């Protein structure tokens, strides 16, 4: 699916500009395998992201272009990153996506009809968005032996995506200012699916826990089918710990990483955040249940990704509460890396999952 492809060449840098940090992964291909050349994370101070509440929309992308450019340049300089071709992600809250069903006659006819259909789903004028689409399923393929197949066209499911033009222009300015060649913009969920699932087509739920929010994505046959954003993320949990224990945000983050959800008689950190995590479980269960009921299709497993997944006993707790197969995802499973990184590779994979998926893209 070639969403927002700008130049049609392969990039080597995946750049994920998130709510609280800029993350870069540099990959090369050797013998058909991806090789990790470099990675970097840069947290911009003074963004007020950590003190923002749910629904505030605070994000590094809300900062002036020059501050974001400075952060990317600092990462490139300190990490001695050599590649200049980049693929960047568009965050979920900046995009409009939906799946629609349409009769299929030809690619050309579909391309003509889609803008008219898109007006029903996109809340702003089409002149103000970049629109892209991809056929993700054929529901009633006509063929030999099918009654009336000569006259009845197939029905196709189309994944429709739109991004405001001012957002795409902002990315162009930022990448140019940082001295990078922007090869493509991609939906962050698409990058996540590539990194975590590869060619696995089984129905899967991906729970991506970010700083400001949690994204719950149902994937089938390699495509996003349902996406639900829940406005609680890692920072809200850290703040809950800080309030409950009357400690600083920095100390709360340290305690969260150290104690997590481990069962202990005096794990007061657990008590301070369990209600918020239980709500994440509830939202995940509800999203899966709604999808299964609507599509009459079983979701086989849940993959957890994001910084919070590094917390002790978090995956086990989620599995126990959800009562189904739950795994910590590994975005670096198909990437070769130095042996020296082995002790920390799972933590890196959770943190850099979207950036890795972007760098894996062939455009």
From TrEMBL:
This is SHS2 domain-containing protein. SUPFAM superfamilies: Actin-like ATPase domain. InterPro entries: ATPase_NBD, FtsA/MreB, PilM. It holds the Pfam family PilM_2. NCBIfam families: pilM (TIGR01175). Signal peptide: none annotated.
